[in-house]
C-alpha cells in the first residue's frame, strides 16, 4: 500500500500512527492527535501523496498557567507515500484519533482479464494469406 514504507521527511515520530490492512484492497491509517480538534487538522491528497498537517490555534490571552505541559501541542506535518490506485475514502476524528480510510481502486482497463481461446474458423485451419496485387 505504501511505497518504500512510511517515512517522515525529518525522521520525527510525531504524531504516532497505526497502519492497518483491512483486506486486500482496504487500509486504514490512525493518527493519535490528543489535544487537537478537527478544525486544527488538514488532510490533503494529491497524486500519490497523503499529507496530514496540524496546527494549534494561538492560545495567547488564555488564563491557564501550566505547571507541567506533557501533551504535545506542537505543529506537525506527516506525509504518506501511497502506491498507485490508492484513494482516500473518508476521514473521521473521534476521541483524539484521526482515522483515514483508504481503498485500492484499479481501473477496469488495468485489471487482468482472461482471454478465451476460440475454435479455428471453417477454412480447414489455414491461416489467412495476404495476396499481393499485380502492378498495372
UniProtKB/TrEMBL annotation:
<feature type="domain" description="SHSP">
    <location>
        <begin position="8"/>
        <end position="120"/>
    </location>
</feature>
<dbReference type="InterPro" id="IPR037913">
    <property type="entry name" value="ACD_IbpA/B"/>
</dbReference>
<dbReference type="InterPro" id="IPR002068">
    <property type="entry name" value="A-crystallin/Hsp20_dom"/>
</dbReference>
<dbReference type="Pfam" id="PF00011">
    <property type="entry name" value="HSP20"/>
</dbReference>
<dbReference type="InterPro" id="IPR008978">
    <property type="entry name" value="HSP20-like_chaperone"/>
</dbReference>
<feature type="region of interest" description="Disordered">
    <location>
        <begin position="115"/>
        <end position="136"/>
    </location>
</feature>
<protein>
    <submittedName>
        <fullName>Hsp20 family protein</fullName>
    </submittedName>
</protein>
<keyword id="KW-0346">Stress response</keyword>
<comment type="similarity">
    <text>Belongs to the small heat shock protein (HSP20) family.</text>
</comment>
Amino acid at each position: 500500500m505504501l511505497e518504500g514504507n512510511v517515512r517522515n521527511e525529518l525522521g520525527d515520530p510525531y504524531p504516532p500512527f497505526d497502519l492497518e490492512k483491512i483486506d486486500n484492497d482496504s487500509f486504514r491509517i490512525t493518527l493519535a492527535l490528543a489535544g487537537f480538534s478537527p478544525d486544527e487538522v488538514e488532510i490533503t491528497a494529491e497524486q500519490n501523496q497523503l499529507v496530514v498537517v496540524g496546527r494549534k490555534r494561538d492560545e495567547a490571552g488564555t488564563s491557564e498557567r501550566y505547571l507541567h505541559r506533557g501533551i504535545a501541542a506542537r505543529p506537525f506535518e506527516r506525509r504518506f507515500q501511497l502506491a498507485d490506485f490508492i484513494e482516500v475514502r473518508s476521514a473521521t476524528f473521534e476521541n483524539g484519533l484521526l482515522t483515514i480510510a483508504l481503498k485500492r481502486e484499479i481501473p477496469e482497463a488495468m485489471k487482468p482479464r482472461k482471454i478465451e481461446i476460440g475454435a479455428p474458423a471453417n477454412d480447414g485451419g489455414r491461416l489467412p494469406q495476404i495476396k499481393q496485387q499485380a502492378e498495372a
